[in-house]
């Protein structure tokens, strides 16, 4: 790869971890994210209403993390081609990575639009209306959560990480490749939560493993080792 391409790839890789730190800190302090994702509507809606600025900032940053995954997927496709691994495999992986970013964005948008609106209405509603708003929140969260988390964060991201890990192994980067395979396997294992609820706990390990892997890839790329 050319020096500008290598610099861009390193920046996009590092951006995944750097941007993700914003929602972790901002939303973590304000609403107990990501644990709050599993709270019932009656508990999370007041938290969203009490911290509108933090919710907007945190989820906007998370949206940018997902958006940045799209050009990263194509930058890694260019890296694969430069390493003699072009063809349909590189194209398929670019599609998977971009799809993961788009699906994640579709899931995140609910926290920047519908959920704050429901939270504001919930704060001033009577008991009967609150029950309806909570039911609406639960239904929307179940659908958008499946799109963003199950399909975006876990399934397509997991498959993409497995593919990139395999490409790294073929290029001779043994430990980075094995790390990518481990991250992808963890994310895919979380999808088993549909049948085995306990598998959801693996998400707490999958996220830091992937974020540290992005940093390691960024460092290797910046040094010209990738």
Provide a descriptive summary of the structure in words:
With 226 residues, the chain is mostly helical. The chain has one domain (3-222). Helices cover 83% and strands 0% of the residues. It is built from 8 helices and no strands. It has helices spanning 3-31, 41-50, 52-82, 88-112, 114-124, 127-170, 174-190, 203-222. Helix 3 (52-82) packs antiparallel against helix 4.
Concise description?
The protein has 226 residues and is an all-alpha fold.
Whole-number average pLDDT?
A: 95
- Kindly provide the radius of gyration, computed on alpha-carbon positions and rounded to a whole number of angstroms: 19 Å
DSSP helical segment count: 8
Structural class: mainly alpha
**What share of residues are in beta strands?**
under 5%
**Which descriptor suits the 3D outline?**
elongated
Q: Main β-sheet, in a few words?
A: none
The number of strands is 0
Please indicate the count of domains: 1
Span between termini: 9 Å
Q: What string gives the helices and strands in order? A: HHHHHHHH
Helix content: over 70%
Low-confidence parts? none
């Amino acid at each position: 790869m050319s020096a500008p391409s290598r610099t861009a790839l390193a920046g996009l890789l590092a951006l995944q971890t750097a941007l993700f730190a914003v929602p972790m800190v901002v939303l973590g302090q304000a609403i107990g994210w990501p644990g709050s994702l599993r709270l019932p509507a009656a508990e999370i809606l007041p938290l969203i209403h009490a911290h509108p600025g933090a919710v907007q900032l945190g989820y906007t940053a998370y949206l940018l993390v997902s958006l940045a995954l799209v050009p990263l997927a194509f930058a890694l496709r260019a890296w694969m081609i430069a390493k003699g691994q072009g063809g349909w495999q590189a194209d398929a992986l670019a599609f998977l990575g971009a799809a993961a970013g788009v699906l994640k964005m579709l899931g995140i948008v609910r926290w920047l639009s519908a959920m704050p609106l429901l939270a504001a209405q919930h704060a001033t509603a009577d008991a009967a209306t609150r029950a309806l708003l909570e039911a609406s929140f639960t239904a929307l969260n179940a659908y958008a959560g499946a799109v963003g988390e199950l399909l975006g964060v876990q399934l397509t991201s997991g498959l993409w990480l497995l593919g990139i890990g395999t490409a790294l192994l073929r290029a001779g980067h043994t430990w980075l490749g094995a790390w990518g395979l481990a991250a992808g396997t963890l994310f895919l294992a979380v999808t088993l939560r549909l049948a085995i609820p306990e598998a959801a706990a693996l998400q707490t390990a999958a996220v830091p493993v992937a974020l540290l892997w992005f940093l390691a890839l960024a460092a290797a790329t910046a040094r010209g080792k990738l």
